[in-house]
């Protein structure tokens, strides 16, 4: 055996340029062992250094979740002066500027067992400039021209600002070498400025290949910690899974400003941020997509989305930050969760639990100071749409453990067999009989006010336990819930949804209630607020504008129509045509199957466009069926053809199977 270039074919040559990085159980570095009869002519002197692979778990098991065996840029593996040359007379080996089996190319991606079981990242290489890991002790700017890769937890230190340009994408590994999920933590006193746009959103997502997605729990999430008040006895706390002092939040400044999140998408997170070795499968440290700990009202969070998170979508622990135009879809626990004395305004929220979520919204106030701890958790919700899990008996909205607030002009739907719209449970003694739908002349901090302007679509509107003991809640039914398209069993598997009103006549539009008058600001249930809402004449999070268009998960996955709308019910095609009808030139929307029955004639003028949805509420593809004895007269011209097409936005077309078709049946 030799570490010198061999001159005999039966010699083992071990290059000094090799890297050994092994540690024995007693902490010593293991290099070589040898048995009797073996000896070295020249004992090897390899490099005993950290190989600095992108992701090499500290504990090797067949159940490892993720690995990336490529070396980091500028690591020892890329030192050209320590790379062996290929012999000049060799025709098999090829030269490479690195030590080991991998350089920047992950050649085992896409076809190996590790790839097929989802344990490899996409074959993209994080450079030194695009790798995010560790502490940010000086303000930093991420640019949209690069894709960034988060390989471990990132902490923005107090006094520093992380600025992320519109259009930037950050892809995260599942965990670091110690098994702790990657996460971005904005510490108390630090800021994040992430201002995207609808056409250039900022995206936090997984490093996994696209074929492995959607998938929950593929990385951690985003955590923002602030100085606003919370209701623990000490007035502070540490966010679960993050060690003090980095994870501390809470203070005395309710106007604290932690920065701006606008058009920010957080997808596929929720992995365990700090796994418990004694119980790694259920340590309880799975984190939310966006965690807000003691974040103040000076912070802006609007047009943000969390999708396919393993735990909650959004969760606020205390603080006073408000949320506007926020979407939370297909997350594994609650879509929105508020605790520890949170007091904020929630305007135009959209929650879609899917088949794996628990509740659309959960709210509780109990802390180590009890259920009446001050400040009390108090949500103020207007113009929001909450779609519950149709396969679960969990309520769509749950208010418990001392929480209070106001919900108005909102839509709550639960399509499960024993669906419950709103549940009130575990009230404090001071809250007993305080829930009401009657306009309050004297607002009470501990009361829950459910305005009759809300619409509930569930088997049971309210479920109230004996600790709350109230019978005075009421709700407007407005007949059947008439949204443009709400599947009977709305889940991730639905082909399309359109949460806007069916039209401008049948609802869910309504006249502003008396509590929305100017006097309401000083006498109504919102009078405890310091801000005002934008109140309109409709229920739910949407009117004619589909503000999720182009940037949300539902839009990207083809579950939303294009953001075009007509409130004219005559422009909607659905059901039976039993008498002859002539359409006008323009655009029509086919929302379900249309049957032209004998002896009716459907006349379609030149230049007309008919856009069809992907399904109706029952899951059936819309189609135009001309039955026996009926007729269609559709005479276009070369300059004004008649077009049947999909309602999907142009960026998702061309694609097949987006609607049914046209069927003519003869005699």
Describe the structure.
The structure is a single chain. The protein is mostly beta strands and 667 residues long. The strands form seven sheets. It has a 26-stranded parallel sheet that branches. Strands 35, 37, 39, 40, 42 and 43 form a six-stranded parallel sheet that branches. The longest helix is centred in the first third of the chain and has 4 residues, at 113-116. The chain is globular and about 100 Å long. The chain starts with 18 loop residues before the first strand and ends with a strand. The relative contact order is 0.06. The model is unreliable at 511-522 (pLDDT under 50).
Q: What labels describe this entry?
A:
2% helix; single chain; mainly beta; globular; 29% strand; 26-stranded parallel sheet; 43 strands; 667 residues
């Amino acid at each position: 055996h030799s570490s010198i270039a061999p001159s005999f074919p039966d010699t083992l040559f071990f290059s000094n340029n090799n890297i050994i990085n092994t540690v024995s159980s007693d902490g010593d570095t293991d290099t070589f062992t040898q048995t009797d009869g073996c000896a070295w002519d020249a004992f090897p002197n390899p490099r005993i250094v950290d190989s600095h692979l992108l992701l090499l778990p500290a504990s090797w098991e067949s159940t490892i979740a993720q690995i990336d065996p490529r070396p980091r840029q500028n690591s020892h593996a890329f030192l050209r002066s320590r790379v062996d040359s290929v012999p000049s007379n060799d025709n098999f080996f090829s030269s490479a500027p690195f030590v080991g089996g991998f350089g920047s190319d992950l050649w085992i991606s896409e076809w190996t067992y590790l790839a097929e079981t989802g344990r490899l990242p996409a074959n993209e290489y994080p450079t030194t400039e695009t790798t995010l890991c560790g502490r940010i002790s000086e303000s930093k700017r991420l640019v949209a021209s690069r894709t960034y890769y988060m390989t471990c937890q990132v902490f923005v230190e107090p006094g520093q600002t992380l600025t992320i340009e519109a259009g930037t994408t950050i892809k995260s590994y599942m965990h670091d070498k110690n098994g702790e999920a990657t996460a971005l933590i904005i510490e108390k006193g630090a800021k994040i400025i992430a201002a995207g746009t609808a056409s250039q959103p900022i995206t936090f997502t997984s490093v996994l290949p696209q074929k492995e997605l959607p998938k929950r729990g593929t990385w951690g999430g985003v955590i923002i910690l602030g100085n606003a008040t919370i209701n623990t006895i000490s007035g502070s706390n540490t966010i679960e899974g993050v060690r003090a002092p980095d994870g501390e939040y809470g203070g005395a400044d309710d106007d604290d400003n932690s920065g701006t999140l606008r058009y920010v998408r957080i997808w596929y997170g929720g992995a365990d941020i700090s796994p418990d070795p004694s119980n790694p499968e259920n340590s309880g440290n799975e984190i939310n997509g966006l965690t807000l700990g003691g974040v103040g009202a000076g912070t802006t969070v609007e047009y943000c989305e969390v999708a396919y998170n393993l735990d909650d979508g959004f969760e606020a622990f205390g603080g006073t930050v408000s949320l506007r135009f926020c979407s939370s879809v297909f997350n594994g626990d609650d879509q929105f969760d508020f605790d520890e004395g949170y007091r904020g305004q929630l305007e135009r929220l959209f929650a879609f639990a899917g088949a794996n979520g628990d509740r659309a919204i959960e709210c509780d106030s109990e802390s180590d100071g009890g259920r009446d701890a001050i400040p009390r958790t108090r949500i103020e919700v207007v113009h929001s749409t909450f779609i519950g899990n149709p396969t679960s008996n969990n309520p769509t909205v749950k208010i418990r453990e001392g929480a209070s607030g106001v919900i108005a002009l909102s839509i709550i739907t639960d399509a499960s067999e024993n669906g419950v719209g709103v549940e009130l449970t575990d009230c404090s003694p001071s809250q007993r009989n305080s829930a009401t739908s009657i306009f309050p002349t004297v607002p009470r901090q501990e009361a829950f006010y459910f305005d009759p302007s809300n619409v509930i679509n569930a088997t049971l509107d309210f479920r109230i336990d004996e600790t709350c003991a109230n019978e005075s809640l009421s709700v407007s039914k407005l007949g059947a819930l008439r949204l443009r398209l709400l599947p009977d069993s709305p889940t991730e598997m639905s082909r399309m949804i359109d949460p806007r009103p069916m039209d401008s006549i049948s609802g869910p539009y309504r006249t502003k209630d008396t509590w929305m008058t100017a006097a309401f600001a000083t006498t109504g249930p919102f009078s405890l607020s310091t801000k005002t809402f934008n109140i309109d004449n409709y229920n739910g999070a949407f009117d004619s504008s589909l503000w999720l268009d182009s940037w949300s998960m539902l839009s990207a996955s083809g579950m939303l129509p294009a953001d075009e709308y007509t409130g004219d019910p005559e422009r909607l095609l659905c059901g039976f045509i039993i008498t002859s009808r002539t359409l006008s030139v323009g655009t029509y929307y086919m929302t379900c199957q249309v049957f032209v029955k004998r002896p009716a004639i459907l006349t379609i003028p030149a230049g007309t466009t008919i856009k069809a949805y992907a399904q109706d509420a029952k899951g059936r593809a819309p189609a135009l069926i001309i039955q026996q004895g009926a007729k269609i007269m559709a005479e276009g011209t070369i300059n004004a053809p008649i077009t049947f097409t999909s309602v999907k936005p142009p960026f998702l077309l061309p694609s097949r199977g987006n609607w049914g078709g046209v069927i003519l049946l003869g005699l």
